[in-house]
UniProtKB/TrEMBL annotation:
This is Adenylate kinase. Residues 31-60 are annotated as: NMP. Monomer. Pfam families: ADK. InterPro entries: Adenylat/UMP-CMP_kin (IPR000850), Adenylat_kinase_CS (IPR033690), P-loop_NTPase (IPR027417). Catalyzes the reversible transfer of the terminal phosphate group between ATP and AMP. Plays an important role in cellular energy homeostasis and in adenine nucleotide metabolism. Consists of three domains, a large central CORE domain and two small peripheral domains, NMPbind and LID, which undergo movements during catalysis. The LID domain closes over the site of phosphoryl transfer upon ATP binding. Assembling and dissambling the active center during each catalytic cycle provides an effective means to prevent ATP hydrolysis. AMP binds at T32, R37, E58, L59, V60, G86, F87, P88, R89, Q93, R130, R141. Its EC number is 2.7.4.3. Keywords: ATP-binding, Cytoplasm, Kinase, Nucleotide biosynthesis, Nucleotide-binding, Transferase. GO terms for molecular function: AMP kinase activity; ATP binding. It is found in: Cytoplasm. CDD domains: ADK.
Amino acid sequence: MVRLILFGPPGAGKGTQAQTLAKSWQIPHISTGDILRAAVAEKTDLGVKAQANMNRGELVPDQLVTAMVQERLRQPDTKPGWLLDGFPRNVVQAHTLEQFLQQSAQIYDRVINLEVPDDVLVARMLSRGRQDDNEAVIRRRLEVYREETAPLIDFYRGRQSLIDINGDVSVEAVTTAIKDAIAKPDS
Ligand code: AMP
């Protein structure tokens, strides 16, 4: 049973790591960015509401995202565990998640904080070629990360949940570092 929050700035490699880990542990990879992009592509109500914010590099309103995550965490495939990627993104979302997990008698095990220098993040995002990966939007996403998301580092450190991982090494080395850290009972 692993319940993990993958945390870090945009471009840190959360999605890449989550995919590998989810496969290896056979638990769902829940990426709010992926769910939102699918909603935009399908032009659902959620997608229509989220699209403008996403294109600007801003956060999508909390109520939309938290409702989406709660619905996903209620699905039966999350019984053996889950990996959250891209959520929570601010303190309000973190509180909502804690309340929801308490109500459903669950708890997250650890928060993995992937650390990568800014210049590497920008280079990675530019090479990814996603619709919201042009330079102006990338700059805004990094600002939003610093202003709204980075305060969660102290939030989770205060809860003794945070594990810092150097994300500026090979994909395989990061995966190994995460697995090693999780395997230690009181890391
Ligand atoms: P990501 O794929 O995680 O980089 O997310 C892409 C975009 O989706 C972000 O720039 C936000 O606009 C939106 N998004 C993803 N997750 C969240 C979240 N937890 N809260 C608000 N907006 C989000």
